[in-house]
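Fold this sequence, please.
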Amino acid sequence: MRILKLPIFFFFLFFTCLEANQEQNAKDKIHHSSIPSWVQQVDIPEADESMIHEGKIQLLIDEQYSHPKRESYCHIAKKFCTLSTVQDDAQIQIQFFPHDQKVFLHFIRIHRNGEIIDITEECKQRIENMEKIHRLIYNDYYLLTLFPEDLRVDDVLEYAFTLKDQESILTQWIQKFYTLDSYESTQKAFVRIIANQDIPLSYQIHGMNLIPQMNDLDHETKEWIWEAENLPPIPNDYNLPSWFCPNISLQITSFSDWNEVALFLAKIFYVSQEFSQKIQEKVRFWEMMYETQEDRILAAIRYVQDEIRYLSLHEGKDDYLPHHPNEVFERRYGDCKDQSVLLISLLRLLGIEAHPAFVDTQLKQKFVECLPNFYTDHVIVYFEYENMPFFVDPTNSFQGGNLHTFSPPPFCFALIAKEDTEGLTEIPQEIENSKFQCSLTFHINPCENKARIDSKIITTGHYSDNYRHINNGISIEKLNEKHLSYFQHFYDDISFLEETEIYDNRDHNYLSVSYSFEIENFGEQELDYIEFELKPLAIETVIPSIMKISRKSPFAIPFPFCLEEIIHIVIDPYPTNGQYALENFKEMEYSNETEHFAVYVNKRKEGQNHYLIHAKMENFVDNLEPEKLKDLKMILMKFKKSLNTIYTIPIPESA
């Protein structure tokens, strides 16, 4: 046993020491210093009590950047007017990357009754690695948290620090994004950029009209200054579209156009043609195995999507560079950069011209409104085949379909890293091939208060892709447990009649899942009737139960989205008279379609003891403006009322 435990012990010891070394490295990058000489001093304004919002007020947001020095200076002052804000919001948090940045703390002060108290040395601090392990992203991003002592109601907390970037190929460009306001009222916002005279700067501001001051500092450098005062708090609306920015924001770039960005990224993503023997053998295998070039392309795509697992390990300097495809192929994992470069290499070996395409998964359709920049958050692959353009996400594991039926990546626009790129390229968004249909058949025996539920889900397009991705590797036994556990939220006495059966036609991207349950004590039984509710209905889970109409920001709705539900109610015939009546079932049809969404309900009697409810919801956009929410709420309320899923079956005395 000792022989087995010893390697485990050293393995644990190795990673414990590694983690300790990384944390120590982060601590070593934190220093105390005076304010840099290039910084312009900005005074804290006197607090305007009328601007206090939810017990606090942001007196000053002061951010300055010197491109020649590669230094970002931040100066904040905030007043706390209630005990709850002192308790909840007094921490100071600084994000940094120890491999690329140093932190210089200048001061932490408390302003109290005309006195300034320096508490820089007294502040306790904590350093944490903020790895995004829930998305399989392991990085060296750290969070420094400082805890001011003896902070009281009506105190002003003021602090300043500077982040110094390590010189790299990225720091030759200026790319900055600032928010001038916050969820508190902001009395003064100040942004200053210093750059060399020969660097052209472009800027755009969202949310207000603000013209910068531009001054020559000397014959080599110049400055741009943006100032704003008395900014209201950001609306605290919920359920915002990912692309919506509620802030007053400022974007600054030194790129002249998107072609300049594309050329820069193409240089970073250049891969030498020295491919390993194993990669070349894999391509030769596809060339022998498949008769058509289209099938070979599909094999390459599926190989990277299915066989190269997504894992992002940020190991320090130059993490923006992809690993060589030989390395990715050998270790069989990588992030989006690595997987894209591997797929591009495989396609080029097949004779297909392919390039990395940079997208923004949050901004989506608003990406096209940005100034040229390379701070995107995802990389996919663009290639052409038979004069047709194609976009493929190599991280989309187990995607179904073929080249002509793939669900396109839902990112709207992409920057293709090649020489002749002039701007962003639109990614076609074809959603009509993606459907989700849920069918429930209730076989009800009123005499015994029993029911059988046959459930069948049919998906196409990206719904099938999502199902494969979520349930990949899960056994039928685990799926049974998953489905049973879900239905047990609604029924106590429930058991399987037919276990989960899955049919998956990946080539056509068609997938179906079916299973059946038996339920004892199905409804609430009285002497002369049984009352029951049809549940669970998928369509009810997507109807927002609470939707605040009074808001200032767009309301996000699922998109692309098309959900269809077909419900059959079949009542076992009573032996004496041969039928029951579903007492409060009313045949009806309701539909309402706008340019943004559509709903449909059809309720009818299909035959003796057989009733049908057919419902459908479809969205054509990903958000609604506030003025449209009232109409949506009224339509959804009428739609939900028309479903009326509670029914009664009278039981004859002889039953």
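The chain has three domains: 31-254, 262-426, 436-650. DSSP finds eleven helices and 37 strands in the chain.
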